[in-house]
Automatic annotation (TrEMBL):
Polar residues bias spans: 10-21
Biological process (GO), any one: ribosome biogenesis
Organism: Candida parapsilosis (strain CDC 317 / ATCC MYA-4646)
GO molecular function, one term: unfolded protein binding
Keyword match Nucleus: yes
A GO CC annotation given for this chain: nucleolus
Compositional bias ranges of the Acidic residues kind: 35-72, 183-202
Official protein name in the record: WD_REPEATS_REGION domain-containing protein
Length: 508
């Protein structure tokens, strides 16, 4: 019901005051010329009622003072006002960002990461965009799960001017756990909380380059050999091999001076002439150093290391003039490798072949195949990422059959795939990056008829057309390359147009 204020002049007097003796008492009016018995108590409004009787909000109805409103009409009016107020105060619900469904961001819009789904998330700004990145193995141990974390990286720039390009070796330390803690969670370790508040530390060393680097790869045997052999495929067609052992040592040895010789490549591969390329991979099984390089003319060269020098096979492996977009050594046989080309074929080769021709060729996509990844846990599994946004997983044992089909195929992304990588510690997990500015994580072990997932898909409409194997979507502008850290389970490093992301999600 509405409240009306008491008349200002009661019985012709302006000297009215109300006193409340107790919580439940009616206000007593003290007048000069009138008694309480002569007054209509119902005409008074208790000025202290809001303070003492109820904490609930009073909703005033905009009605004329002289008009009375029945109780039913008043209640409806109150309900309408309450509903309107709730709608105004209600915050917009957060939406799931889906690259194939969500509308493009406006000029003033940005995507903010949900800190509750990341165990660790750090951004590293660089002077220029980098098309590629790789991880330097370290001596800090395997299966590291404690924080703060430390990672060693190698990347190279795509500068506006060729002379400004650099090879960058870096150490990122004091990478803290960024998972948001529940307000109800008790602090068990004050020392650990102090570590979580520290700022990351970034140490870098740069080596000048004369051209943009299309791809960089670090020899996986560096930790054992002590030589951090790092190959860069340049857009001028040359492949440079650096030893970053001195840079790695300088990060952990105060006062150590990096010799000038470490700023120069220890070997340059010029077999490709002036033809640039993207295919580049070190053998995971040949510790002395075996490097495959492929160019856009379809040629693949093998470079091996002898006791005194590096030797490049003068006869290239060749099957088609289509560009070699990616190369992967077999994880189980030291003479076998695979290539992906712009003609849509995945080819399996053997370095012992005198004809330098592929042993197997399979049409894997109607579009370019941009990237491939050979599973280190199950060496008959190979993943391929395509220019039409699809990606597939293949069982190489089926390649001897005519027109084999992939064991898994996904079309979630609608833009070209730029990188694909099996998790080295879990054969069922795959990271995929795309030109739609996302990195997606997938778990191939998830069954499509899982009851919990089916229930979630029924309850949330946004999940209806999302494959149940999709674990996570990470947004990064112009993402180009993504690599798993083999010594920190679940940790990834991805590079894009605005620098590097070092991150770990709660999903893996």
């Amino acid at each position: 019901m509405s409240k009306r204020a008491a008349d200002e002049n009661l019985n012709g007097s302006n000297n009215a005051s109300s006193l409340k003796a107790s919580e439940n008492a009616l206000p007593v009016s003290v007048q000069n010329d009138a008694s309480v018995d002569d007054m209509d108590v119902g005409e008074f409004e208790d000025p202290y009622g809001d303070d003492f009787e109820s904490d609930e909000e009073i909703i005033e109805l905009d009605e004329q003072e002289d008009e009375e409103m029945d109780e039913e009409t008043a209640n409806k009016k109150i309900e309408e006002l309450e509903k309107k107020e709730q709608e105004q105060q209600q915050e917009p619900e957060s939406e799931i960002y889906l690259p194939h469904k969500s509308k493009p961001l406006g000029p003033d819009e940005v995507l903010e990461a949900d800190p509750t789904v990341y165990e660790m998330l750090h951004n590293v700004n660089l002077p220029w965009p980098c098309l590629t990145v790789d991880i330097l193995p370290d001596n800090l141990g395997n299966e590291r799960r404690t924080y703060p974390a430390t990672v060693y990286l190698a990347t190279a720039t795509q500068a506006a001017k060729a002379k400004d390009n650099e090879l960058i070796a870096m150490k990122a330390s004091s990478l803290v756990k960024t998972l948001v803690k529940d307000d109800n969670e008790d602090d068990e370790d004050d020392d650990e909380d102090d570590d979580m508040d520290s700022d990351p530390i970034l140490d870098t060393d740069t080596t000048p380059l004369k051209h943009t680097t299309n791809r960089i790869r670090v020899n996986p045997h560096s930790q054992q050999t002590g030589e951090y052999l790092t190959a860069t495929m340049s857009e001028n067609g040359d492949v440079y091999i650096f030893d970053l052992a001195s840079q790695f040592k300088a990060f952990d040895t105060p006062g150590f001076v990096i010799p000038k010789s470490s700023k120069r490549p220890i070997h340059t591969i010029r077999a490709h002439g002036n033809v640039e390329g993207y295919g580049l991979d070190w053998s995971p099984l040949i510790s002395t150093g075996a490097l495959l390089t492929g160019d856009v003319s379809g040629r693949v060269h093998l470079t091996t290391r002898t006791s005194s020098s590096w030797v490049t096979d003068k006869t290239p492996f060749f099957s088609s003039q289509s560009s070699i977009e990616d190369i992967q050594w077999s994880t189980g046989e030291n003479t076998v490798f695979s290539t992906a080309g712009c003609d849509g074929y995945v080819r399996i080769w053997d370095t012992r072949s005198k004809k330098h021709k592929p042993a197997l060729s399979v049409k894997a996509s109607d579009s370019d195949i941009n990237v491939i990844s050979w599973c280190s846990k199950i060496n008959h599994l190979l993943a391929s990422g395509h220019d039409d946004g699809t990606w597939s997983v293949w069982d190489l044992r089926n390649f001897t059959q005519p027109n084999p089909s992939p064991v898994a195929n996904y079309d979630f992304h609608k833009s070209p795939i730029t990188s694909i990588s099996f998790n080295p510690l879990d054969e069922s997990i795959i990271a995929v990056s795309s030109e739609d500015n996302t990195v997606t994580l997938w778990d191939l072990a998830v069954e499509a008829d899982d009851e919990e997932i089916s229930q979630q898909r029924r309850e949330l409409k946004e999940l209806h057309d999302i494959p149940p194997q999709l674990l996570f979507v990470h947004w990064q502008k112009d993402v180009k390359d993504v690599r798993w850290h083999q010594q920190i389970p679940g940790c990834l490093v991805s590079t894009g147009g605005e620098g590097l992301n070092i991150w770990k999600t709660i999903s893996v």
